[in-house]
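Hey Z.,

So I finally got round to the fe (ii) ion thing we talked about over coffee. Here's the setup:
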Amino acid sequence: MLESLGITEVDIDRASREGKSGGEAVIQLNSYPVCPDPDRAMGLAAHTDSSLLTILHQNKTSGLQIFKKGTGWLTVQPQTGVLVVNIGDLMHILSNGLYPTVLHRALVNGKQQRISVAYIYGPPANVHISPLPKLVDHYHLCLYRPVTWSEYLELKSKHFRDTLSVIRIAGTPNVF
Ligand SMILES: O=C(O)CCC(=O)C(=O)O
Ligand SMILES: [Fe+2]
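And the result:
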């Protein structure tokens, strides 16, 4: 993925010498009990993850949905041996919007309990994340100011889904 953004092994070596490599992760366990009236309840409200990437395992009960512009909510059916990888807000910033963060939610099920395990991966909490210099030029303005994961989480607790707009420094979206 980093390779597709033009990041080479030399860049990664340099970052590790500067102490910027590695990352932090948390595992979140989600349990959605059987719901007698699933059309009138929501398991997890629509949100984007604040991570770089989230790797998600879901049990055999469906419920995860992602929002696709122009189409609406799409169910991501669980498949044995398949993990879902969600792009998070920090990857959105790092890629200068090239890899957009994904809006998703979890529905409840009327017949079966649903369980999911999210591996939420991000940078060390105090490392500044900003659009990669290789992705910024005369035609592709730098869209976001630098932010650490901890600062971003604090902003998100106040601004929720508007947080990316809050740290945005350029007006018009880039066309890739
Ligand atoms: O339960 C799911 O499928 C989604 C979980 C999720 O979005 C999260 O833990 O951030
Ligand atoms: Fe999520």
